Known about the structure:
The chain has 146 residues and is an alpha/beta fold. Helix content is 58%, strand content 12%.
Amino acid sequence: xxxxxxxxxxxxxxxxxxxxxxSDSAVALELKDQYRKRNLLLCAPQLLAYEFSHVIRxxxxxxxxxxxxALKEFDGMTFELVPPTLALMQQSIRLAEQYRLSVxxxxxxxxxxxxxxxxxxxxxxxxxxxxxxxxxxSLDEWEKxx
Length: 146
């Protein structure tokens, strides 16, 4: 019987690096490549679609062709976008209060906790706030284990 594929929750800071050259972009692109080769699974709260649209617009303001291409490619990635549930929203609020995060960031943590998988982030503040308590990995950490 085949081993189950590793799964990760990705946040908008990681997804942005798939389209915008920044530090850690090469690692983020490797993550995307491994997903496309079906060597791992990705998921995120549905919120990611809106956050991704926001950061792409902000990053490429005025360059509609780049924005449209990024949105089309993102839309073509078929990883699971987890819809909000009452339990996830309640858990997100508790995590936001406990770790002094936005409820938006806490949604990624809630999905990770409920799926029992790590959250991958390029957000250094988020990583610093919760990495010792919850399964939150930086892209650098993912690169070392993958």
